[in-house]
Predict the structure.
Amino acid sequence: MGERDNAKRVGPARDVQRSEVVEALRVAKDTLRRQWVEAMASKGFLADMTEEETETESHVIYNTVLECIETRDYGGVERYAQGVAERSTLRSMTPDQFLGGLLTLRDLYGRHLFTQYRDDDRQLRQALDAYEPVANRILSIVVTAYLGEREQVLSRQQDAIRELSTPVLQLRDGLLILPIIGVLDSARASQLTSGLLRAIRTHRTRVAVLDITGVPTVDSKVANHLLQTTAAAGLMGATVIVTGISPEIAKALVAIGVDLSKIRAVGDLQGGIAEADRLLGYVVQDRREQDPRPAPSDTEKT
Amino acid sequence: MSAPILSLDGFLVVTIQKNPTDSEIISLHETLLRRVSEVRTDGVLIDLTALEVMDSFCTRMLRAVARTIGLRGAPVVIAGIQPEVAFAMVQLGLTLQGIPTALDLEEGIDLLRRRRRRERGS
């Protein structure tokens, strides 16, 4: 026993219980909560919140964390984290804001406990032991929830883009058009191929026009995918015409030495459709010369 | 059991049964060659609608069938390759090397008829 200890206390050192820490923080609630609001406001994290919202937020965050320290049940925190994550993506709350909120609170709790137990190292350590692991765990739960929510939003958006970007349109009996927009990666390319093959079967397609005007770059991989798509469609008796290869892309493909001799390429979509018509035996006739019809505006007058 | 060979409008139609063994494919090749030399035919259609898996051996045999029957002067058309099979074949790098293909039996016969018309016309 050191002299210091003897001077300050009589009898053996008292153990600090978790309930005591909780009680201390509960008593200090209003003080700490006000400090939290001040700290948050000074950092500019509350800029777009009303006073009422701030008040509610401070209550919620305080009670959630306290309940967690008391019960060691993280259900409440998980619900809170989920709420924060959803709000952060909906109202574009920044990670700075909600992490700042939690970190500030963590600081305040820590300081409060420090002040309370500063006379005794052992008690301070016990108090911090009761509170710190919980605080850390809470942070990790919130961050995980936030990241999970972000992931979900991203994958939803990716799905949407994927759905939107590979429509399969039937133009005439036996003729499909596939306007491809956006970057063609391996996953999309195989999806495109299987989608096209299914469409060939259901629409009884003989010719498919693949328009790649909207594909920004074509490298050897993408070219290979196009070759595979063409070959697979060929196995089902359909011809694939690729249109919309821009001069830059054509140049790049030749430069990297991709063999596209197996691909039937036509300059633009119009030419591709004309070629498809020829293959299918359709004849498109321009009747304006032989059979002059009154324009719609003339018919209205008569 | 060997696949039945049907006669339709001057063409021979063979329907490959679900997942044939290698020996079945070989015996089919033999039977088909014999039939083509026995009866006059304007073309052969091999229908793969029921086929679920296509391997390199099967592909090679189909190419061999097409080439040997081609030597007898009859065109061969392959029909009914399923989307999944076509996709898998391309992934594995299997090709039919110029054997004409058609969506199904109907389109295949149509293709053979058009070819016959063209040949007789010229």
In short: Chain B has a mean pLDDT of 89. Residues 77 and 99 of chain B are 6 Å apart (CA to CA).
